[in-house]
Amino acid sequence: MKLAVLFSGGKDSCFACYKAMKDNEVVCLITLISKNPDSYMFHTPNINLAKVQAQAIGLPLLALDTEGKKEEELNDLEKSIEIAKEKYGVEGIVTGAVQSVYQSSRIQKICDKLNLKCVNPLWQINLKEYMQEFIHSGFKAIISGVFSQPFDESWLGKFIDEKTLEELIKISEKFSISIAGEGGEFETFVFDGPIFKKRIEIKKASKVYKNYSGVYNIEKVRLVSK
After folding, report:
1. pLDDT tens, 118-152?
2. 80 & 131 share domain
3. Are 30 and 80 in contact, with CB atoms under 8 Å apart?
4. What is the average pLDDT value for the chain, to the nearest integer?
């Protein structure tokens, strides 16, 4: 089956793409670039680098702008999926939805309308097992945004590995956060992994942080052969 992946460049969409590639043909990535940093539907930190990630993976990217207004942004998503269907013969849409009923139900509705299969490889997955598999599969990612207590500025740009996962598990027990950021506590940026033909090297970045909320702005990157 020919699939398009709803792609943010974060761990969930990259890992969902990886899972989908095992039994299907992923023909393109779809990214919505929201002007609203508080979008209900779409990941926003460093979303401008999705095109570089697509190059590193070796897949065409359909990138559309959206104002990011609640519910209205779904029209832009539907438009992008329609384009993918017409241009690449897409038969299904892959999402990185893990627990968000808000997101998954709305994407399912669009897929039903366009007669496309909605593929959710990560839906209701055990979060600890998921994070461990993500790391052990060879994905390389950093935390690109934090939006919750108790994350301080030191978490911005932190590499996601077993040590970081252990810290997240300890924090989750005390503060009732999701170790996968499913409550919007943090966002991620993937710069390498088994689906990447080239690695992304971060050359320059800066942090903006205040009151348990901040973003790791990646300002300069380059693609490196593997």
Report:
1. 999 999 999 999 999 999 999 999 999 999 999 99
2. no
3. yes
4. 94
Contact 195, 21 (CB under 8 A): yes
φ, ψ (nearest 5 deg) of residue 189: -135, 125
SS (H, E, C) 94-155: ECCCCCCHHHHHHHHHHHHHCCCEEECCCCCCCHHHHHHHHHHCCCEEEEEEECCCCCCHHH
Residue 68's pLDDT is what? 65
Q: Are 155 and 146 in contact (CB under 8 A)?
A: yes
Whether a cis peptide bond, with omega within 30° of 0, leads into 37 is no
Domain boundary among 119, 142, 171: 119
The answer to whether 48 and 33 have CB atoms below 8 angstroms apart is: yes
Q: Do residues 70 and 172 share a domain?
A: no
What pLDDT score was predicted for residue 42? 66
Whole-angstrom Cα distance, residue 134 to residue 140? 9
Q: In what order do the strands lie in the sheet with 140-146?
A: 186-192, 140-146, 213-225, 198-210
CA distance 28 to 104: 20
Range of the domain at 89: 2-119
CA gap 47, 65 in Å, rounded: 11
pLDDT on residue 38: 64
For the chain, what is the domain count?
A: 2
CB atoms within 10 A of CB 173: 10
Sign of CA dihedral 219, 220, 223, 226: negative
Which pair of tokens denotes residue 27? 């023909």
